[in-house]
Amino acid sequence: MRTRPRRAVVTAVALFAAVGTLPSAAAQDRHAQHHPSHGGLSATIRYTEYGIPHILAKNYADLGFGTGWAQAADQVCALADGFVTVRGERSRYFGADAASDSALSSATKNLAGDLYFRGVREAGTVERLMAEPAPRGPSREVKDLMRGFAAGYNTWLEKNRITDPACKDADWVRPVTVQDVAARNFALAVLGGQGRAVDGITAAQPPVSTTPTAGAPDARDTARAARELFAADTADMGSNAVAFSGATTANGRGLLLGNPHYPWQGGRRFWQSQQTIPGELNIAGGSLLGSATISIGHNAQVAWSHTVATGVPLNLHQLTLDPSDPTAYLVDGRPERMTRREVTVAVRGGAPVTRTQWWTRYGPVVTSLGAALPLPWTTTTAYALNDPNATNLRGSDTALGFSRARGTSDVLDAVRRTQGLPWVNTIAADARGHTLFTQSQVLPRITDELAQRCSTPLGRVTYPASGVAVLDGSRGDCALGSDPDAVQPGIFGPAKMPVLKDAPYAENSNDSAWLANAERPLTGYERVFGTLGTQRTLRTRGALQDVSAMAARGRLTVRDLQAQQFADRVPAGDLVAADAATACAALPGGTATGSDGKAVDVREACGVLAAWDHSVNTGSRGALLFDRLWRRLPVAQLWKVPFSAADPVNTPNTLNTASPAFATALADTVAELRAAGIALDSRLGEHQFVVRNGKRIPVPGGTESLGVWNKVEPVWDPAGGGYTEVTTGSSYIQAVGWDGGRCPVARTLLTYSQSSNPDSPHFSDQTRLFSEKRWVTSRFCEKDILTSPALRIVRVRS
């Protein structure tokens, strides 16, 4: 356990005491005081601008208490909704056939999600993981944080009236237990494994007839579906992050820019805070809702961010079934019976529903990984899903390790010691000028050798195409095995993880680890981690162009990070807009034929494309026209110059304007905008916005395929004015550096603001900042917190 120097400890303790006794008459006049209850757990919460809480506590249980209380104050409805999910009670309150909570699983309907989470609860899965001694299970500090979080949330419910219309007077808003808090962490851990397959797990039933059934999935179709399924992860969640070393900065210290792309609504929102235990912990950043630890953040000496990784956190085992019993499978010629789990779910307005789930030594039997990837259970074959994160409740300890870190070496030590990250990379920088990239994930121990030796015919296609291994479950010698440095069996140990230390820059935009630094490519990792030598996304290519140029220019400061975040350059525009304008101008008669066979006058579009500034600023004219055109251009016919692994940042390139698809896409785009009454040269912000309390807030940024760093994914509603809401995109952004003083130089922004309650003053205040490309200056040191003109102090007790 690391502590600060003695002088700093004494100062912090004195400040804690000073804050604990603040209520001189002058202080009471300046700051609103609130005492919700007395006795038991307690914390002091100092709110500064934009409703950011700075939580001061004497120990981890108290810190969890203050965090749970403050999160409930801002996000009670989103939190309560998630707790209904992990208790398996959505059907009870919202109906079995209603769309489920997409924040915590892939279940399409409430009934499927309830059957899964109720099954997890009745099997005692989370309790067993909580009982495991550290490091396999949570540490005492994390258990105290969870216990305190539950108590803080419950105390807020007891002492406050809910005003958010999303759950005001709702009977499903109830007190929670430590098990509920831990179950939410479990749901996040398995999001890429069992959570991805909830429908397939809960629908899996043995064939009703003993007549042999055909139905082995087509290998190529399955491989394509698996590739698309895992590539689609960044549609819902993604990220950019870059760390610059002291060799590139103005003062020899590190810099970190984190730009995670997460949902703007629901239970995977970030929530911003600072957590302080004097002499023990002092960390600021964003937490995923329901988490008692900081997920992405900085302390006085190190900053880190995460990006969704390409590692595939699951694999399949193809079972050879006993010819006389489809609920028994053979391993080395000996039958093993599947385990039945009878799960009953309460349903609103109807009788309870009971379903059977089937489990094997490898995990649950699954009949699909999404609608496009069926895995039929026949009389001869079934598929079991292995998810190593179903025994991983260590993510909070990893986060706590980061929070205590004094440098990037401590960050790396934390991931190696705790091994708790299920589906993200880590990028970090520190005050001494060091950088780090690591893809330290909890992944099934699928070596390329094992896949070569043990893949079924289906797996021989899916593994190279997507990283999804399908192993022969009938062979004992196809077990995953163990690495000596792994904290649990069947996963890779830290020695196998891709790591890049002290590069001038380390960057990731959701492609594999290969080009974390284009001049120092990472190689030698197994296919399950991601690809080598393959085409990068436009977002990766644009990011690498930008950050390598920044590193080469040098003398970087936090201001340069801020400029990169909001440059809003469109790499796709730089590649093709000029060629598109030229090809447009060359169309005979200035017309093009749309997909409906009608001729469209496109002459105006040619000039708009030529004049566009290749950005997605809210004032950019032509950005919307290009965006709508780009979405229509067929990828298979897009480029003249193909990808080359020798030049991965700059290829493929050169728009194939000779393809008839170009003119058709242009005609359809022009017709679409005119039909909606949208001028071709309109400013982007006039038609890309969110509405908060009846007011439009223009939104900068662009969609994934454009390659924009500042990614936003809005919903196209031409009748409503264009892009009228953002579903996912830039979320908790931080630009962090150091200047040699005791306080880090940090600028932050929570794009969708702290609260989802429209009655809160912090419902859209940071969203307006995002619209205007403005930042929040971090108040990390005590002197900055206590001198905030917006300071409001709340003391909370259980």
From TrEMBL:
Entry keyword NAD: no
Signal peptide: 1-26
InterPro entries given in the database record: Ntn_hydrolases_N, Penicillin_amidase_A-knob, Penicillin_amidase_dom1, Penicillin_amidase_N_B-knob, S45
Record keywords, A-Z: Hydrolase, Signal, Zymogen
PANTHER family, per the entry: ACYL-HOMOSERINE LACTONE ACYLASE PVDQ, PEPTIDASE S45 PENICILLIN AMIDASE
Family membership: Belongs to the peptidase S45 family.
UniProt name for this protein: Penicillin acylase family protein
